[in-house]
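Async update (no meeting this week)

Hi team, since we skipped the sync, here's where things stand on the single-chain job. The sequence we agreed to prioritize is pasted below, unchanged from the tracker. I ran it this morning and attached the output directly underneath so nobody has to dig for it. Comments welcome in thread, and please keep replies under the output.
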Amino acid sequence: MPPPRRLVLLDAPSNLGLMPPMPDREPGVRQLAEALRARDLLARLGAEDGGRVEPPPYQPKPDQNTRIRNAESIATYSRALANVVKPLLVSRRFPLILGGDCSILLGPMLALRELGRYGLMFVDGHRDFLAPRASSTGGAAGMELALATGRGPELFTNPGGLRPLVRDEDVAAIGYRDVGMAGHDLSPEFFTTGIKRYPLDQMREMGPARAARAATAELDGGGVTGFWIHFDVDVLDDEQMPAVDSRQPGGMTFSELRELLLELLTSELAVGMQLTRFDPELDPGGCAAELATLLVQVLKR
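Output:
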């Protein structure tokens, strides 16, 4: 059995994949990493400090060719993030990336694609499978799973001729609840792919730990070398985690999410994780403290 991976905390404070919350104002997710580090997260995890990958400046207008905001900047940032993550993976570190919006997924998936065949555990309240033409916001944070699986402009989907960054059959989507939600049923292709699907109701019927084991077994049986964990905080119950920009009713409890993540992280196939979408500017009630505690509970081992 290989030795356990050493945890590394890495900040990726990009808000490039979101629309402005109002004119002349940037999305507040760029402060996610600072808010969690202020809860002494580095010391509590006993992690190495991987530093910070600074994103390009935010520009609110969508790109005319791709219809995606900050398109060139996201592509550039994905490459920069991959260049930092890849050597960490090679040296058997376990990166915990503090985002940022969900478009940061393209960075670690590019790094993993360059290393071989890896899977993705997509723990998110939304499917994030929109095509640019179907998006009302032009935000890559609503289409990152489609982009990572090779759907969309080549600028994102085919860096270095490596399309797709992850195969459909090597993805398990867990906990989504946006089916029937206005603006999110514009991606029916999701249900015709080989993506393993565990919507919230099914996950609850199975139980979080059993669902995690089933998803892990499916990816393992498909022949992946390991998997990355994408964790968007909007998978949590809206009343417990209101500090997100795209709210919807329902969601997992902290207890359910803890059970799910603990099981996923028990697998030797887990090679890293990212945390996205938490907006400290929308957090008057102290969600950051509970979120930091959750990370310590599932990762300190």
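Quick observations from my side:
The longest helix spans residues 71-90.
The CA atoms of residues 172 and 196 lie 4 Å apart.
Reply here if anything looks off.
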